[in-house]
Structures are given as C-alpha cells and as structure tokens.
Amino acid sequence: MDDWQQRVDAIWDDAAERGEEATLAAILALAAERPSGDPLALSESAGAYDYAGREAEAEPLYRAALDAGLPEPERSRATIQLASTLRNLDRPEEAVELLRDLLADRPHDPLAADARAFAALALFDLGLGAEALREALAALVPHLARYGRAVSAYAAELDDE
Question: Contact at 8 Å (CB) between 142 and 120?
C-alpha cells in the first residue's frame, strides 16, 4: 500500500472523532495531491461526500471514478457505494440495476453479500418485500451451517401477493 492510501486510511480511521465536514475536507485535500481524473482520488472524494451526507455531490464522482477505470477491489466497493447513494437519492430502481449488473459480472466477488444486502434494501424501498427478503436470504445462505438448501427453497416460494 502506498503512502497516499495509508494517509487516506488514517483519515477514515479517525472519521468519527474528526466529524463529517472535517473528514470531507481532509479527504479532498489528499485527493488534490493526485492527478486530475485519478480514479482512486475520485472514489475517495465521492465516499467523503457521501459520509458528509452530500449524496448529490458524491454521485457524479463515483461515476467518474468508475468511468476512469477504477481497479478492483475498489471498483466493487465504489459500485456498492454508488448504489447506496442512488437509493438515498430516491432512485432505488437504478440502485438495483447497478447491483444486479455487479453480481452478474462478478458473482463470486468478495463483496457479493454486501451487494445483495444493499439490493435488498433498494428492493424493499420499491415495495418488493418478498423479493427483498429473497435477496437478503441469498446473501445469508452461504454462511448457514446446515439449512442453506431449505432456506433457499423457502425463499424461492416467497411472493408479494
């Protein structure tokens, strides 16, 4: 890990004590050290705006980071964070689509369960309670010690009628 990322991580480690706006300012200062359009700097900036509750400012930065070729594993993380941002901006349909694309492209991504959890929240926002529960249970099944097959079968039977 390079020095820049270590300094970014140190800011996030102290974010609760630092506060939202001070964390945002610190991350933006570090991002300014990177070349214009740097995908890591864009992603960290987006996350800082999100942390400060400024989702409308975070969204275009997440998109720019992804468009600029943000590498894995940061790419999956930024995709999930963008989906959460879209949900907070009352655009759960877009969030679900983004997460489903991530899961289709990378079904074994280390953050697949995280993506499913956020998809479940967005599906619930859409009034699709059974589909949301199915998604949440799908994230849980790989971690069940004995009854994964039964839970999968019962989840498949859920509907919103």
Answer: no
- Dihedral Cα 87, 64, 79, 39, nearest 10 deg: -140
Same domain for 95 and 154, yes or no, is yes
**Those residues with Cβ within 8 angstroms of residue 23's Cβ, 6 or more apart along the chain or in another chain:** 11, 12, 14, 15, 48, 51, 52
Q: Do 129 and 98 share a structural domain? A: yes
Place of tokens 């039964």: 150
Report how far residue 9's alpha carbon sits from residue 4's, in angstroms, rounded to the nearest whole number: 9
Question: The pTM is what?
Answer: 0.92
Quick check: 54 and 45 in contact, CB under 8 A?
A: no
Q: Are 85 and 54 in contact (CB under 8 A)?
A: no
CATH number of domain containing 89: 1.25.40
64-78 pLDDT, tens digit per residue, is 999 999 999 999 999
Q: Domain containing 131: what range? A: 72-161
As a whole number of angstroms, the distance between CA 38 and CA 59 comes to 16
Q: Is residue 2 over pLDDT 90?
A: no
User: Quick one: three-class SS letters along 140-158?
Assistant: HHHHCCCCHHHHHHHHHHC
Q: One-letter amino acid identity for 4?
A: W
Residue ending a domain, choose from 70, 100, 117: 70
